[in-house]
Design a protein that fits this description.
alpha+beta, D-amino Acid Aminotransferase, Chain A, domain 2, 10-stranded mixed beta sheet, 6-stranded antiparallel beta sheet, globular
Amino acid sequence: MSIVFLDGDFIQKDEAKISPDDRGFLLADGVYEVTPFYNGVPFSLDRHMARLERSLAWMRINYSLDGLEEIHKQLIRANEFQDAPTSYVYVQITRGAAPRTHYFPQEDVEPTVYAFARTWERPSPERWAQGFSAMTVPDRRWSRADIKTICLLPNVLAFQDAIEAGADDAILVRDGVAIEGAHMNFWGVFDGTVVTHPTTSNILPGITREVVLELADQAGIALEERPIQVEELKDADELFFTGTTGEVRPITTLNGAVVGNGSVGSLTQKLSDLFHGKVQEVRSALEGPIA
């Protein structure tokens, strides 16, 4: 049975109880963050915490992150994931339990803090080399997609539409622009230039996206942050996603049509290699797992 963290305590998951009046349950009034660990070593934990702090501030949820990094590491230890090749810690913070109103509680309410650790698996090298399929779906999210809230129903429905159509993932489209994936950032390669949507309120600025942008710049790869029009997609040489558990994930089929020459592109492969190299660099910089 897994060990989770709930409101100050590490407990067995089946002992975790949250009030039915919790505003996260009733109103999706909360935020979350997911941080990857490699062999017990956190990757970009500081960036994930900075994004979580930003989300909390925008949502006006008063919660200090002091000690939260250590809670992440304790969850990895408690669940014996120190040697797991890939794992992650999910943390969710809601405004707390209070009588249901559409405005904030009038009395002080203690936020609900829940976190758990879980392992995840990369696709096999053979599966990754095949690439993945995607389909375009309408972006029905609210106007502040840059805030990592727990209100993910539009993402869930988009992903389900893709799965029911036989695709591996979804690309969200708004006003003729391919904005991002249902749970990852979206990229294209056009005439040797790597392109991704700029950081606006229409996308969630991914930590993996940020790292990949830095690695590409350091490697001298041509970069452009701009909206990708849907009609451009048929002319893309390569398409791929980036995300916490997706890392760099190639798209070789879009809406049933082959992307580029139908195989993983050279720049997608290079960026994937650079990202894995960065992961190894972070791990090697530490004398064993710090979790």
